[in-house]
Structures are given as C-alpha cells and as structure tokens.
Amino acid sequence: MHAQPIIDYESIFLHAPVGMCISENRTIQTCNEALAAMFGYSRAQLDGLSFQALYPTMDEFLRTGDRIIPIMNAKGRYSDERIMRRADGELFWCHVTGHAMQSSLPLGPGIWTFEDVSEKRPVTAELTPREREIAALLVEGKTSKSIARQVDLSPRTVEMHRARLMRKFSAATSSELVHKLVGAQL
Known about the structure:
Number of domains: 2
Order of helices and strands: HEEHHHEEEHHHH
CATH class of the largest domain: Alpha Beta
Strand order of the largest sheet: 2-1-5-4-3
Strand content: 15-25%
Radius of gyration: 18 Å
Number of helices: 8
Mean pLDDT: 89
Low-confidence stretches: none
Structural class: alpha+beta
CATH architecture of the largest domain: 2-Layer Sandwich
Helix content: 40-55%
CATH topology of the largest domain: Beta-Lactamase
CATH superfamily of the largest domain: PAS domain
C-alpha cells in the first residue's frame, strides 16, 4: 500500500501559470506570482489592494461591479473579457473569471483568475471608458438592444458608440468590428 503524496496547495497557487487571487469585497487578499507579473506589481504591493487599481478608470471599476453582482447572485460565478491596466498604465485585454465562495455574498470571499489575452487581442485604438465597456460586450456577441439594457443606455446611444468604434477600428461592418476587437486579421 502506497502512502498518498502530500499536495502542497500553497505552492500550486503561488506558481500556477495563470494569474490568481483570493479577494473579499473587491480587495485582493492574496495573489500568486503570475498575477503580480501580469499587472507589473510585486505580490506584496497587490495584497490588500482594491481591484480598482487594476481598472483604467474608477467609473469602469464601479460599472463592472454593478454588472457582476446579479450574475454572481444567479450563477455563483462570473466571466468576461475586459480591458485592464498594468502598473505602468499600459492597457490590455484580460479574460477574468471569478467564483464566490459563499453564494449569498457575490462580492464576499472569492477566487479570481486573470489571463492576459493581449497577444491575440491587442488594444489598438484610443477608446473612452464607455467605448471599452461596449467593445467588451460586443465581443461577447451581445446586440445593441441587450447592451443598452445591461448598461442602462438607450439603444440609439449604444449604436452611436458602436459607430465610433467602427470608425476607430476602420471597420465597414459590425462583424468586421468584432473580428478586429478580438484581434482576428481579415
């Protein structure tokens, strides 16, 4: 009979190849090396830091929090791709997934993973915070009408933002815009 090997979960967490953190109330309690490297901080600098520091603007931090709560309440997990900010100010696309450890507390204790997807999806145009939000929702395949409901705008306003995005990305169609946003070469 073989003895079961002792699994060192702390080492697995610290050296996982994807950025990970434990958070509570949108504050990083602890993180791994990959997360610190991805955002350009040391682990010590991130421990106790609000997620707000990783967003391009305070408004984007607040709106994302508002979007996360109902989804976490319904599913206990949340996932999206969004533009985040490194310590040096560089903006990059990031795939973010979170899981609430207590379903009754969507922003309470949670486990979050972050994957830098900037190589396949570079940030190529100067976008406003609202354009970044709408671009992220377009990439998810949402219609202007569903985006309008989700971000509390009129469908016409969403269409204006989409038109601006199409100009900035030199896209002739909505489909071409989405391809350019995800980094596909046409």
